[in-house]
Amino acid sequence: MKEVPCQRFGRLGTEHSARSTPSRLESEAATIAFVKQAAPYVRTPNVIHEWFDQDRSFLIVERLGHTTLNDIWGSLSTLQRTLAVQTVAQYCQKLATNTSKMFSSVTGKCVGEPYLDDSGSELVGPWTSEQCRQALSTSSAPCPAMDEDFHFCHADLGPTNIMVAEDGTVEGIIDWESAGYYPNFWIATKPSVSPGLDLCPAPAGCEEWDWRKALKSELEGMGFPQLNMWFMEWLQMNEEKTTQK
What we know:
The chain is an alpha+beta fold and 245 residues long. The chain is built from seven helices and nine strands; from the N terminus they run ββαββααβαββββααα. The chain has a four-stranded antiparallel β-sheet with strand order 1-2-4-3, covered by helices on one side. β3 and β4 form a beta hairpin. It is globular and about 50 Å long. 38% of the residues are buried.
């Protein structure tokens, strides 16, 4: 499954990095500003400059550090890994207390979540709860039960987006371009179904899915529903419809 194209130009010296995303997506700078205000306990990059050119936006940010969880997962102890998982899950739990009546970005635009898109646009929303139920239902895989509110989440918590100290202590989260208000069930379901959140490459003695499996389990323990069976059936039905066209 394709991911929404985001180009990372990489480091600008040792202290800054640059990236580019399609302008049809929410401004990542706007999302970072929202998180800094609504969730200051989550460390995010400081934005240096953002600009738009035709169909793309460009962003320069201060780097949060030089080590990702992906870099050192293989060297961490079981306890250190558990603490990292718990910290990120607690961030998710707190972020989810920010709600909206629309499945959308922080300013009401569509969000880039190709796993929930069946149109080929790689975008979803903005939708009301009723529009969401219709979009995420098929004859054999109706949309799961959901409340009227959508809950803020990062939606791309792979280990390369989690900055850590050398002992695995979580120091911040980067890459907020997919963040927005999602159905509550997606918070734990996404790490269950998305290989994009895998360790890459998997360290010796580890499976590539170890991180996302642990995060999914921790989120389930917090009460977030995990609906991978619904998702796989919904995905199969939509793939069959596409094939028949």
